[in-house]
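yo

u said u wanted the structure for the complex thing, so here. seqs first:
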Amino acid sequence: MRHEVIVIGAGMVGTSVAWHLQKNNAEVLLIDKKLPGSETSYGNAGLIQREAIHTHPFPRQLTEMIRVLPNQGTDIRYRIPAILRYHQALLQYWKYSTPASVKKIEGEWQTLIEHCTSEHQTMISASGADELITRDGWLQLHRSEDTFKEAVALAIDARNQGVEHNVLTVAELKVMEPSANFDEFVGAIHWLNSWQVSNPSLLVKAYAKNFQEMGGIIKETGVQEIVQEDGGWKVITDTDTFYSDKLVIAAGPWSNDLIKPLGYDLPLFPMRGYHQHFKVNEKNTIHHSMFDMDKGFVMGPMQQGIRITTGAEMTTMNAPKNFGQLKTVLKLARKILPLEDAVESEAWAGSRPCMPDMKPVIGSANKHEKLWFAFGHSHQGFTLGPMTGRLVEEMIHEKPLLVNIEPFSADRFSK
Ligand SMILES: Cc1cc2nc3c(=O)[nH]c(=O)nc-3n(C[C@H](O)[C@H](O)[C@H](O)COP(=O)(O)OP(=O)(O)OC[C@H]3O[C@@H](n4cnc5c(N)ncnc54)[C@H](O)[C@@H]3O)c2cc1C
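structre next:
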């Protein structure tokens, strides 16, 4: 059987691409080596981030670089083999992180973020996944008056872009989250129109189920090779060979493995994060996700318990787990909330798929017909999956595009 479109990767991005195509009368096969939402889209902090209008530039100020260098931070750590392996991408990342460049990039990025909640809502309604979503925002906690002041100024600016917030004193925080201890904090920003998901993997699974209800097919098998053949595509997997007219690569941080043999070498690099769930007494819990801005970790209420999520570790995809960052973060988290036993015996680790210019790749491939890329969403792929799905469908079906797609083109690094 020849499929109209094959999508490889059933994370938030690939599942959303497949959903939009199937919804618009394409006949789609979605392939993943695991069940939908089992990798990075499983392990994230579960925030649909309408407030995320700023990107994450490489530290360029000397003070910031000196702070990161000893490799003991809770927000960012690195391993030398990864620096060596990804040095070219990191150099580009550094170059793209000048204030002027970041300003331009953020202007482009914001055209995507603007639509994140409305695009999720369409899929949430169709999938009946409303019970997984809380629309009461999340809390950005500050330990230092200086960073708090800067953040408040940015939040006020963000109102021009439809991002809503309240500034909270410690006393007000205490009213919102009576079980938490805010002694080490000076205040918080409550981002009002961002959403919290109580089980990120289940949201992807709900979208995938709805895709199947519309007639979409899912195969759980690993893709070994993709070959252009007969004006279309042959996808060789661990178990079968599949054929399609069109192909979309949405394999998150693994995307380069699939497209390198076709002659593409995009500067995609991984930024690892860890999480672990902890039991809490029901009377002693929190109701909002909280991001400790000065220490760079998130603690949020999930179905499985309180999920403690670390910042970034620059390491290679298959490097063994290193729990140092998580251990340090846990000490800080326990001061905020009395966490009980860990739910899992070992913490989860997964990699954000990052691009040096902090923008995802969403577009057609420049060396092959009928091939599209949708990956590299770094810190906000869970937020931007549905928006990406919509854009890829519009491109494939040659419809007018919701936003200008040029800044996200796959060939921007070869120009
Ligand atoms: C700790 C942490 C916290 C985060 N918090 C947030 C947050 O709060 N909000 C937010 O928006 N983003 C967050 N992110 C980022 C977000 O999770 C990612 O950007 C997003 O999940 C990427 O989705 P994806 O579909 O591109 O990749 P993935 O979810 O990784 O999906 C890729 C899929 O491709 C499949 N695949 C790969 N290779 C093959 C192959 N050869 N054959 C078959 N299948 C294959 C994999 O099995 C996988 O299922 C966080 C990330 C981390 C690590």
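The chain has 13 helices and 21 strands. The mean pLDDT is 97.
cya
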